[in-house]
Amino acid sequence: MNKPNLEIKIGSMVMKNPVTVASGTFGYGPEYADLVDLNRLGAITVKGICPEENLGNSTPRTFETRGGMLNAIGLPGPGAQGFIDTYVPFLSHYDVPVIVNIWGKKMEDYGTVVEMLDAEDTVSAYEINLSCPNVKEGGSAFGTDTDSFSRVIELVRGKTQKPIIPKLAPNVSDIGAFAKAAEEAGADAISIMNSYPAMAINIDTLRPELANRTGGLSGPPIKPIAIKLVWDAAQATSLPIIGMGGIYEPADAIEFMIAGATSVAVGTANFTDPTTINRVIDGIESYLIEKGHSSAADIVGTVKT
Amino acid sequence: MKQEKSIVVEHHNFQGEYRILRLAAASIGPRVKPGQFLHLLIPQLGERILRRPFSIYKADAEGVSILYKPVGRGTDSMKPLHVGDTVDIIGPLGNGYPELGKDKFPVLVAGGYGNAALYLKAKELPVKGVAFFGGRTAEDILCVEEFKALGWDVRPTTNDGSLGTQGLVTADFDPWMAEQEVQSLELFVCGPAPMLKAMGDRAIEHDFTAWLSMDENMVCGVGACLTCVIKRKTATGWEWARCCKDGPVFESREIMWNE
Ligand SMILES: Cc1cc2nc3c(=O)[nH]c(=O)nc-3n(C[C@H](O)[C@H](O)[C@H](O)COP(=O)(O)OP(=O)(O)OC[C@H]3O[C@@H](n4cnc5c(N)ncnc54)[C@H](O)[C@@H]3O)c2cc1C
Ligand SMILES: Cc1cc2nc3c(=O)[nH]c(=O)nc-3n(C[C@H](O)[C@H](O)[C@H](O)COP(=O)(O)O)c2cc1C
Ligand code: FES
């Protein structure tokens, strides 16, 4: 039997397979390069970048929970120019699209960061973070209200021809409304989901386990939430969806695709086992062969309801 | 840095509550430099998902060993590991200790698993100086005979006086330091945070070099997640430095301690 076609498209960006990494769980590329063959990935999604250098939150920034973890890293990063100077030369050596996750403290920042990055050929697409639970300004403040959500996307759309992918907040009452708004504002795809606002308290010290007090839950505990959000969004929009949240096994990724995701991202699982991403790529291929499909696109949104 | 499915070749009590775990790891073993660590995925961890970092005690062409004490969910779940079991490890990680400066006199200061973390350095150093080891009781002071056999002058201190001088390591270190030409000292330190800070403060006050191995909670271990950061001084203020990638070893003057 012929090998199935794993290639998928997100706007004009071609991915050789549907699998990328979740922003913030894979650094900027070099960190895992000894352990993961970056050229095998469908795309590399880097940690959030805003126009200026940002320090992020105090420590502790993470906390392990049953089956998952909380994080409140607070989007530290080198800023757009720092990213260009430090990481673009490295990333340009690989034959793999780079999705830059962008964010801003104020609305204009989203436009500024794209203006600063757009001339770089290595930057293939932008994932617009409208859903970070861990920064006071920006992040989910724009992502939980459809008006400001649409305005950010329109602003970014005005600055670039490259694919733009708003990342939706999970904690909204109607994800379909955001999916539709993204489509109307000119997005090429959407990604779902960011970590879910959450908290843990130490019963001896009576203090929150994170310095930021609250954080975002990621890993296997959020997967069923993410599957439902992807399924809901897929019914409201025809845009491709990048699905993520707790993918640890090939079966998890396949489930996202059946729910309606064209592409998937491996996040927290990279920390547990950096080989997860390879297993997920191979597992999707084996599943397609086993079920007699000729391409990855064949299984997207095939859930029977 | 490699990821390897290692096989348990030895696992038993070492001393007091400490246990030794030796792993066959032919691709990681030969790459180890003193002061580096492993990131270990504990197989019986069940619903806990994160790896745990462990300093490398010994390493050779065939593998690596660590000394650990069960203190929590992760280390408790390591106890049932049997010879022949598979353990997924990533390593060697971190920068390790630098070479001894020219004409410097090496001093080791350690507590708890810090003794294990310094063993390879103690072996490698061309000059064998003085080793100050601190612990709660005699049981907590690891590898004394091994360090002596390498040629080190070992000075133990215990909180309860069950071995060596009673008190903290500083009880032995301070009077000794007072009689040295301090600027020629170079310290290699691994132990609990108060010990690191005490040695770092002395290094700055008396103008000698002290390499401190910082212990921070870790998630990725490879520099990607930005969990394990400490404040590192810069010309204009400070920046975050990752213990897993930029450390765990830092010179005392680089560190800005949290108040
Ligand atoms: C670079 C490095 C080297 C290490 N080398 C060794 C070693 O050689 N031998 C050894 O026994 N242990 C070592 N540790 C500590 C070890 O990694 C475990 O994190 C620690 O033993 C607790 O893990 P646990 O899952 O058993 O406990 P948990 O259930 O996670 O925690 C138990 C308690 O310990 C605290 N804790 C957890 N991890 C850390 C940490 N890294 N630092 C301080 N407090 C923590 C928790 O907050 C909690 O109060 C090292 C840590 C680092 C960062
Ligand atoms: C440590 C950490 C850092 C993260 N940083 C970012 C970030 O910078 N930008 C962003 O959009 N999402 C960030 N996320 C969210 C992930 O990209 C992903 O949406 C979420 O973790 C769910 O996927 P998972 O369960 O597979 O990890 C981060 C998550 C973690 C755990
Ligand atoms: S543990 Fe992730 S950056 Fe150090």
Indicate the mean pLDDT of chain A: 94
The gross shape of chain B turns out to be globular
> Secondary-structure element sequence of chain B?
EEEEEEHEEHEHEEHEHEEEE
Give the quaternary arrangement of the chains: heterodimer
Q: Biggest β-sheet of chain B, characterized?
A: 7 strands, antiparallel
Per CATH, what is the topology of the largest domain in chain B? Answer: Rossmann fold
What count of structural domains of chain A?
A: 1
Strand segment tally of chain B: 16
- Helical fraction of chain A: 25-40%
The domain tally of chain B reads 2
Strand line-up of the largest beta sheet of chain A: 3-14-13-10
Distinct ligands, ions and cofactors found in the model: flavin-adenine dinucleotide, flavin mononucleotide, FE2/S2 (inorganic) cluster
Q: What is the strand and helix layout of this fold?
A:
The complex is a heterodimer of chains A (305) and B (259).
Chain A: E1 8-10, E2 13-15, E3 19-21, E4 44-49, E5 62-65, E6 68-71, H1 79-86, H2 88-91, E7 98-102, H3 107-117, E8 123-129, H4 140-143, H5 146-157, E9 164-167, H6 175-184, E10 190-192, E11 196-199, E12 214-218, H7 223-236, E13 241-244, H8 250-259, E14 263-266, H9 269-272, H10 276-290
Parallel strand pairs in A: 3-14, 4-7, 7-8, 8-9, 10-13, 13-14
Antiparallel strand pairs in A: 1-2, 5-6, 6-12, 11-12
Helix pairs in contact in A: 3-5, 5-6, 6-7, 7-8, 8-10
Chain B: E1 2-15, E2 18-24, E3 37-41, E4 52-55, E5 58-59, E6 63-68, H1 73-76, E7 86-93, E8 105-111, H2 114-124, E9 130-135, H3 144-150, E10 153-158, E11 165-166, H4 169-178, E12 185-190, H5 193-206, E13 209-213, E14 229-233, E15 238-242, E16 249-251
Parallel strand pairs in B: 8-9, 8-12, 9-10, 10-11, 12-13
Antiparallel strand pairs in B: 1-2, 1-7, 2-6, 3-4, 3-7, 5-6, 13-16, 14-15
The complex binds flavin-adenine dinucleotide (FAD), flavin mononucleotide (FMN) and FE2/S2 (inorganic) cluster.
FE2/S2 (inorganic) cluster binds next to loops of chain B.
